[in-house]
Amino acid sequence: MKWLLLVTVLCWVTGCSSYNPNKTGYENLQRNHEAECRKAPPAQYQDCMRNQGMSYEEYEKLRQEALK
């Protein structure tokens, strides 16, 4: 029983260690932008979504290049 608890806790801790607050924040901003696009008139919705942005991975790559 103790081993099961230990393995469960280790799996939980390992999963939490992959938490990336920058990615989470970026994804939250993207969701907020999508919500704003849904409020736009139908004629503007597609343009708004087209300007939605890029994936976090693309964003992070560009950000790292800019920091060099």
What is this structure, in a nutshell?
This protein is mainly α.
Furnish the topology, listing elements before pairings.
Layout lengths: L1 H16 L3 H19 L2 H9 L5 H12 L1
Structural description of this entry:
The protein is mainly alpha-helical and 68 residues long. It has helices spanning 2-17, 21-39, 42-50, 56-67. The longest helix has 19 residues, at 21-39. The chain is flat and about 60 Å long. The N and C termini lie far apart (51 Å).
The helicity comes to: over 70%
Give a quick account of the main beta sheet: strands, pairing sense, barrel closure: none
Poorly predicted runs of 5 or more residues: none
Overall pLDDT metric? 81
Secondary-structure element series: HHHH
Percentage beta strand: under 5%
Derived structural class: mainly alpha
Quantity of strands, as a count: 0
Task: List key phrases describing it.
82% helix, flat, 4 helices, 68 residues, mainly alpha
